[in-house]
Amino acid sequence: MCRRAATDSLDATIAVMCPEQPALTIPGAGPRTVACALAMVLSVAGVARAQWPEFRGPTGQGHSSEQGLPLEWSETRNVVWKRPVPGRGWSSPVVAGSRVWLTTAVKASGGASLRAMAFAVDTGAPLVDVEVFRSRRGDALNPKNSLASPTPIVEGDRVYVHFGQDGTAALTAAGDIVWKTQLRYESQHGSGGSPVLYKDLLIINCDGADDAYVAALDVNTGKVRWRTGRRMPFDQAYATPLIVRVGDRDQLVSPGAYRAAAYDPLTGREIWRVGYVDGFSNVPRPVAGHGLVYIATGFQQPSLIAVRTDGTGDVTRSHVAWKISRGVPLTPSPLLVGDELYFVSDGGVASAVDARSGEVLWQHRLAGNFSASPVFVDGRIYFQSEEGITTVLAPGREFRQLATSRIDGATLASPAIAGRSFFLRSDSHLYRIAAQ
After folding, report:
1. pLDDT under 50 in the chain at which residues?
2. N or C terminus of the chain with fewer C-beta within 10 Å?
3. Residue 254's domain spans which residues?
4. Total-model pTM
């Protein structure tokens, strides 16, 4: 399949050669023009390979293959640009081609203007600022939430934004709205879970206090293709599902209140489920590896459970490989690197455990409180606190801290990584940070 890529040269779009075509031809163009166009294509292709298209990156698990990232930074060091972001929002930035996308909620008459914004990767210049929905809700949300917390997701020339019960939409790369829809559920503390893409479906957890279900929307029309109800819709959750390959089929692993389930992503049919009595308001996105999926069970008495993914039906008694109840995060997602699983509690206790057995290898308190999910890049693990402090650790079975850095403002959004750069969102600004 051929896809199009866009560049921001005078906000224009160039046609990109498809893999099945032997050459790029531009009618009436001379050799130099064609060579320049090819150079642009190769440049755009390089950016595309490095893009960060969704919450927690191209794998959905916080990993980047980028190299040459800075170890340290400050407000005066290794900041390529810093641009103000209006309103309030904790959606994480995503990077596609030459644009960085995020969402925000700006105070407006009678409520808030829910907006999608794009900035130029090279300069930070604002390129798109469009109102997608109006919300009548005020700021009476959980202090760690906002009306614009779910992270956008980008594929090709489409940008998908989700504002929870206020609405979901598809936009073009230029900011034109393709479709809008509203999934009905009541979320007391706002929304947090981000959508995921699977083939031609946009899949969203809708875990409200009044109703709880998972829905798949047609990416072309926004129409509901399937909807699967949860069995215990008596509390809410804010998690993002994860696509996991098990044998010869894919599973959509979706945490919810009191239980997590794996579904067939094409049909919504439940494959397996695992229960946890005291878990609701789940936020962390699962990670997977070694034939296991690692799930944080939420509030009350939080645990981190490792579940074997080859089961069917209720696997609560048969497929939980191990369980940990100390230092478990309520908000940040875990990170799997090799044979170790790393996570940090909201209060700042970082842990490393053996991913196969659950054996605790080390625990150490980091500076600050935590909401952002850690990332692994260039052989290092970066933990970003709510106070703007980033602590860098070396992966391994012993604790080894490499550096700390700080920017101004609160930082609850998770970092994006592309083009040998970090893109960090504070409560007031978007940063591009790169080695200089």
Report:
1. 1-50
2. N
3. 50-434
4. 0.88
